[in-house]
Amino acid sequence: MAQVLRTPEQRFAGIPGFPYRPRWTEVGGLRIAHVDEGPSNADPVLLLHGEPTWSFLYRKMIPVLVAAGHRVIAPDLVGFGRSDKPAEAADYSYLNHVKWMSAWLEANDLRHVTLFCQDWGSLIGLRMAADMPERFARIVLGNGGLPTGATPMPPAFRVWRAFSRWSPWFPIGRIVNAGCVTKLSEAEIAAYDAPFPETRYKIAARLFPGFVPASPDDPERSNNERAWETFEQWKKPFLTLFSSRDPITRGGERMWQERVPGAKGQPHAIVRGAGHFLQEDKGAQIAEAMARFIRDTPSAPAAHDATP
What we know:
This protein is α/β, with parallel strands linked by helices. It is built from 10 helices and 10 strands.
């Protein structure tokens, strides 16, 4: 990488409702940030954000899960939050993000993981789980998926992809606000803008929609199809929590419930009154549902082995 941008730490001073200090892991010359809260000897709950957010998205869920006794880890993807941001578009790809976060997971030696993933957190996180099933005990999927390009994308996604590519105006905080039912305060909008002091810091946020496999000839189609083969044999607990008011992913939970063995009989729910960023609209409710799911699906011993 010719150049890497690093958001000045003072940009994160006074972030509302997010008192968590960052921890750092270096992967391939990049510094990846994460927060790590709760008892260090508890099995980890891994919260993966998507586009164009960062771990601030989970501020309503972290305290609920910690209060339930869990260790909660929320990283910032490369190009987002406090993590490093390669300055060249050519450094980014779907595959590179999977590799970076997989290396981060291994470097932190996380095991017995309960994964919650949404949006791009699911495109990356589900690939990580399929590649390293021995590290994951259970999965909770919210407003996300693992597209292969074999089916048409919804119109709302096509509009979003065109906007991200062509619009000269790309106000990240306002974009997140538009994806919520409960509108954000100006301070919260500013918190989503904080990682991006200049346009050149927004490269990943601009590129991510174009990396979603949306056609049969996408370079990541075969990798996602292989991941689907793993999930079609996945017997560990798998829960879907999709929101009722997301025009992009609404209805996408059904394929997971039908195709993943571990999803059978689970307490799947539609989160009413939530938009695309359900963590903002109903974060505490989702965290409570996750805590019940973890309690009711003990992971030892079967979920700790290498069998999906």
